[in-house]
Design brief:
Helices cover 38% and strands 0% of the residues. The chain has 219 residues and is mainly α. It has a domain of 108 residues: Cytochrome Bc1 Complex, Chain D, domain 2 (Orthogonal Bundle). It is elongated. The structure holds heme C.
Length: 219
């Protein structure tokens, strides 16, 4: 009886030692290393704001937006939308007087649940976010449009859309509002090497580029 107990105890102990050894071994071999960059990089997808620099607020671009240019941008939408008063419903709802209206306001249009339940109304910020990426704004939306990545395009389009039956006031631009002023600021700044680290650095990447403001640059 005792003998048998010892044998069993021996096996159990032995098995434990083997298991422990195996786990130490595999732990050594398959050591989980945290990759430098998490996630899978997708080739050909542009990273929007490189170096973590935030985009200028949309009000910055609205200040110099051009409705005529916006009408051109709207050609990308015209496959699915009309924007004239009483215009036909396409794949998407008619967009007459949409700026300022609640999200998903067109009676009788079969909105997705994603948009119907979103809430809020179409102001400059929400419309900009929606047009930048409909999918991010309302995950599950029926609007299969990738989005307008250029803030200039969104600003131009919104100003034009605002002229189609809406009349929202254009927000005041942020304090530093033109490329010329930005350039002047840079020129005015005395070099302060000690503080350089925590000061926002104004360089080509943060300064507004080309686009509509370019004319001001040349003066
Ligand atoms: C492939 C067709 C398609 C294209 C292209 C498209 N849309 Fe849409 N749009 C839709 C659909 C469908 C909906 C309804 C979305 C839902 O219910 O989720 C919609 C909804 C909207 C809404 C919400 C309207 C409301 O009543 O709340 C706005 C604003 C809008 N689109 C603007 C645009 C603009 C501006 C463009 C061009 C930059 C554009 N869309 C391009 C199909 C499209």
């Amino acid at each position: 009886m005792d003998d048998r107990f010892n044998t069993i105890a021996g096996w159990v102990l032995g098995a434990g030692i083997v298991a422990l050894g195996a786990s130490l071994f595999t732990g050594e071999v398959f050591k989980a290393e945290r990759p430098e960059q998490m996630g899978y990089p997708i080739e050909g997808v542009e990273v929007e704001s490189e170096g973590g620099e935030a985009e200028q607020p949309i009000a910055f671009f609205l200040a110099s937006a051009d409705a005529a240019a916006g009408e051109q941008v709207f050609k990308k939408c015209a496959a699915c939308h009309t924007a004239d008063q009483g215009g036909a419903t396409g794949l998407g709802p008619n967009l007459w007087a949409t700026m300022g209206k609640p999200v998903a306001h067109v009676a009788g249009f079969a909105y997705s649940d994603a948009l119907k339940s979103h809430g809020g109304s179409w102001d400059w910020e929400t419309m900009s976010a929606w047009l930048k990426s409909p999918r991010d704004f309302a995950p599950g939306t029926k609007m299969t449009f990738a989005g307008l990545s250029k803030p200039e395009d969104r600003a131009n389009l919104m100003v034009w859309l605002n002229s189609q039956g809406s009349n929202l006031p254009i927000p005041a631009p942020p304090a530093v509002d033109t490329p010329a002023e930005l350039a002047a600021e840079i020129a005015d700044q005395p070099a302060a090497p000690g503080k350089a680290e925590d000061e926002p650095v104004l360089n080509e990447a943060t300064a507004p580029t080309k686009g509509e403001g370019a004319a001001a640059d040349q003066e």
